[in-house]
Amino acid sequence: MPGENLSRDEARSRAGLLSVDGYEVALDVRSAVGEPEDASGPRTFRSVTTIRFRVNEPGASTFVDLLAPSVTAVTLNGRQLDPATVFDGSRITLDGLAAKNVLVVDAQCAYSRTGEGLHRFVDPEDGEVYLYTQYEPADARRVFADFEQPDLKAPFRFEVTAPEGWTVWSNREGARAEDGTWRFAETAPISTYITAVVAGPYHYETDLYERELADGTVLRIPLGAMCRKGLAKHFDADDIFLVTKQGLDFFHEHFDYPYPFGKYDQAFVPEYNIGAMENPGCVTFREEFVFRGKVTQASYERRANVILHEMAHMWFGDLVTMQWWDDLWLKESFADFMGSFSMVEATRFTDGWVTFANNRKAWAYRADQLPSTHPITADIRDLEDAKLNFDGITYAKGASVLKQLVAYVGRDAFMEGARRYFKRHAYGNTRLGDLLSALEETSGRDMKDWSRSWLETSGVNALTPEVAYDADGRITELAIFQDGDTLRPHRVSVGLYRIENSELVRYAQAGVDVTGARTVVPELAGEERPGLVLVNDEDLTYCKIRFDERSLETLRSSLGDIKDPLARALCWSALWNLTRDALMPARDFVRLVLTFAGRESDIGVLQMLHAWTRSALVHYVAPGWRAEGGRLAAEGALRELRAAEPGSQHQLTWARFFASVAESEADFRLLSGLLAGTEEIDGLDVDQELRWSFLEPLAAHGVADESAIAAELARDDTASGKRHEVRCLASRPSAAVKDQAWATVVESDKLSNALVEATISGFVQPSQRELIAPYTEKYFEAIERVWSERSIQIGMDVVRDLYPSLQDSRATLDATDEWLAAHESAAPALRRLVAESRDDLARALRAQECDGV
Questions:
Q1: What confidence category does residue 408 fall into, taking pLDDT thresholds of 50, 70 and 90?
Q2: pLDDT tens digits along 587-631
Q3: What is the pLDDT of residue 245?
Q4: Parallel, antiparallel, or unpaired: how do β-strands 44-55 and 100-110 relate?
Q5: Which of 206, 343, 360, 683 is deepest in the core (most CB within 10 A)?
Q6: Helical packing angle, 398-409 and 329-346, nearest 10°
Q7: pLDDT tens across 15-36, in order?
Q8: CA distance 797 to 221
Q9: Please, which residues have CB within 8 angstroms of residue 849's CB and are 6 or more apart in sequence?
C-alpha cells in the first residue's frame, strides 16, 4: 500500500486548482479469457483514458491517480511525456498545465483477485470468466487514470472491447457495435468511485418500471437483473423486481425528484467484499443474495433492505455527493435509514424496525464503544481513514440518529428538507451545513445544537430508570438517569408493563425529553407498580437501555411473555449490552436465550440471539463454564429443533444453531446421520447449503476427514461449494493444516479475496485454542509487513480476523500493548485495527471476570 494513499489536504488543494469537463475511458478486456501472454506477471488489460480538464492557474502542476503495473504512453496537450519519468506506480505528475488541458493515458492495468478495481472471477463449475468493478473509496484508479476524489465530478463515456459472446454493462445504456466494442451513452456528472463496468456471460433478466409524474409525463426506467449462469436456476428476479418497483414508487412519491440516471441494472456478482454498491444505473450486490437453498424470511428482508439502501443512494450520494469522506454520513447514514424506512412502508417487510432495533443498532453500539469511536461526521485525514470509516457509526448510528431526527423535526419537514436539498445541490457536492440549512428552513428549528450533540460528538449514553413508590405501591416519582461522556437531549417514550392474561403488556406510556443527568417523568406519577419499565419504548432514540432491579427480575421470569415484538427485541438488545458491559454474567444471558428464545416469533431476532449466544460462549463466559455452557446450548438447540414446526423457518434456524454449537459424540452422530440420510428430523430439508453447515463442525472436531470434504465438493462442484470446501479444509484440527492455512493467507497472495476469507474462517476455530496458540507471536511479527505489501482489503481481513482473540489472557493484551508501543509510526489505520481488537479482548476478559464471580 505504500504511495497509494491520498490525503484530504492534497484533495482540497487539487480541487481548488482544477475542474474536470469529462472522461473518455476505453478498456480492452479480451485478455480476461485464455492464458495470459506473460504468465510471470499479473494478468493485465489495456486502459486508455482521455481526461479533459481546466485549471485556474496556467503553468501549475498537479497529479493524476493510477495504480497499474505499467504505463505505455502519456500525452498532455499533444506533448508526449516519458512514462518512466512521470509515473511512480500510483501517480502521474503533470507540469506546465494550460488553462484547458487534454490528457491521454495508455496503461496496462491489472485484473484484481481482491475485489478492488476490476475483479476477475473464473467459475470452477464451467470455466466461464466474469468481470465487475468495485471502487469505493478509491479504486477506480486501478482501472483508468483519474482524479480520484469525490468532489471532482464529471461526465463519463465508456467503451469496452470484450470477448465474443459476452455482454457488457455500465452506468448508462450501451450496445455492441459492428467492430465488437460496446459503447455507452455519456453519464451525468458523477464521482469516479461510482462508475462501473460489469462484463461476462451473465444470465440477464429484464422488466420495466413506469410512473406518471406530476406534470403528466410518464417516466419509464428499464430494469435489469443479472447473475452468473451457474446461479440462474436459483435466481428469483421477479421478487427483486417487485422490491425495486416498490422502492422506486416510494422514493418518487417522497423525494419529488425523478430518478436521474436512465436505466436501473442490478448485478449479483461473485467474490464481492461488501453487501452492495450504489453505482448509478448499475448497482452491484454480493451474489450470496441469490439463495441456493432454503432461507428464512429474515434473509429476504435483508436483501430487500439492501436493495432499497442502494436505491436511496441514487439521490443521497450519487445525485448529491459529499465533498470529502468526512461527510460520508451524508450518504451512508441516510441510505441506511431510508432502507428501513422505505422497506417498512412500501414492502411486505413491515416489521423492519424490529430488525433495525435488534440488529443494526447492535453494530452501532459496539463501534461507538471502541477506542476508535468517532463522531458521525468524522475527521477523515486520508483514504485509509475513509476505508475504515465504513463502520457501524457511519451506517447504523447515523441511521438511528436520523430516525430520531424525523421525530424531532417532523416527517413532513424532514422530507421537504430532503427535496430542497436535492434540487439545490443536484450533481454537486455538499458538506454538513448544506443539509442542516435545508432542514432549518423546513422545520423552523435551530439544527446547530442538534448537530453538535448528535453528529459532532462520539459515544453512546445509557438511560436508567429509578422508581419510587408509596405505601399502596403506586409511583410517586419516575426519573431517568443519563450516563455518558457527553449528555445529549433524547426524546423517549417510557413504557410501563404488567402481566395481563399471561402476557406482559404495556398499560401506560409517556413521552419525555431527557436532558441532563436526571429527568423526571411526571405523567407517570400515580400509576400502579409496573413489572417492567422500558425507558426507550418504541425505540425513538439512540441509547443503551438499563433496568431497575424489579424490571430485571421480571425479564428473568417473563421475557418470553412480552407481547409486542419491538419491545421484546429492545429488551433482548439491552440484556446483551449488559452482558458485553460486564454488568450481567454471560451465563445468565445464555440461560435466558435457552429459556425464552424458543418462543421468539421474529425470525431475525432469533437469528441474532443465536449469534449473541455463540459470542457469549466463545468470548464472555468464564473459561471454567465453557464446557457446561456448550453442553447446555447444544441440548437446548436440539430440543427446540425437534419441537419446531416441521418445515418452518424456525426449524431451519435452530438446525443451523445446533450445528454451530454441537460438541458431543451424540451431536456429531446426529449430524453425520442427517448428512448420510440415516437420520431424519420431520420436515427438515437438508439441502446443499445446510449440508455444508453440518459438515464444517464435523471437520473442525476431526469427525469428517479430507475425503469426506472432497466427496461433498463432488456433490457441489460450484464456486460456492469451493468456498465451503476451503473453509472446511482449514478447520481440521491438525498442526500441519494450520501451518498450511496460515502460509496461504499470510505468506502468499495467490488466493482470491473470497478464499482468503474462507481460509481465515476455517483457521479460527474456538474448539482449537491450544492448536492455534503458537500463531500469536507470528501474528504480531507479520501484520506490518502484510499491511505494507497487500491491498487494504486483504490487509484488513488479515489484521482484524487473525487477531489472537481466542488466546484470551492478560498475556495477549500485553503482547498487543507491546506491539502498539513498538510501532507508534505504523500506519494509523493499521494501529486502529489492532487497538480495536485489543479493546474487544479486554472487554471479553472483563465479562469473563463478571461471569466467574
A1: confident
A2: 999 999 999 999 999 999 999 999 999 999 999 999 999 999 999
A3: 98
A4: antiparallel
A5: 343
A6: 70
A7: 999 999 999 999 999 999 988 7
A8: 38
A9: 582, 622
- Cα distance from N-terminal residue to C-terminal residue, the chain: 46
Complete edge-to-edge strand list for the sheet that includes strand 490-500: 503-514, 490-500, 532-537
As a whole number of angstroms, the distance between CA 804 and CA 764 comes to: 9
* DSSP calls for 45-85: EEEEEEEEEEESSTT--EEEE---SEEEEEEETTEEE-HHH
Name the nearest CA neighbour of 377 among 365, 364, 363, 394.
Answer: 394
d(CA 513, CA 521): 9
pLDDT tops 80 at residue 37:
no
Please tell me the distance from the alpha carbon of residue 752 to that of residue 756, in angstroms, as a whole number.
Answer: 6
Q: Are 557 and 577 a contacting pair, CB within 8 Å?
A: no
| pLDDT of res. 2 | 40
Those residues whose C-beta lies under 8 Å from the C-beta of residue 158, and which sit 6 or more positions away, are 25, 26, 27, 170, 171, 174, 183, 184, 195, 197
Q: Do the bridges between strand 264-269 and strand 544-545 make them parallel or antiparallel, or are there none, so unpaired?
A: unpaired
Give strand pairing partners of 92.
64, 87
Question: What integer pLDDT is reported at residue 1 of this predicted model?
Answer: 39
- Check the CA dihedral 422-427-428-430 and report its sign: positive
- 807 is written with which cell numbers? 488466546
- The candidate with the shortest Cα–Cα distance to 194, out of 20, 289, 331, is 331
pLDDT band, residue 39 (cuts 50/70/90):
low
Look up 784 and say whether it is catalytic. no
DSSP tag of 189: S
* pLDDT over threshold 70, residue 117: yes
Determine the average pLDDT of the residues in 154-178: 96
The grid cell for 117 is 478495481
Answer whether 756's CB lies under 8 Å from 748's CB.
no
Give CA–CA dist 305/408, Å, rounded: 24
The dihedral region occupied by 93, where left means phi > 0, alpha psi between -120 and 50, and beta the remainder, is beta
Residue 46: name the closest of 34, 29, 33, 64 by CA.
29
Does residue 329 register a pLDDT over 60? yes
Parallel, antiparallel or unpaired: strands 321-322 and 462-469: unpaired
Which of the residues 148, 271, 287, 310 is marked catalytic?
A: 310
Residues above pLDDT 90, as percent of the chain: 92
Specify the 3-state DSSP secondary structure of 310: helix
pTM metric for this prediction: 0.95
Rounded Cα–Cα distance for residues 725 and 712 (Å): 8
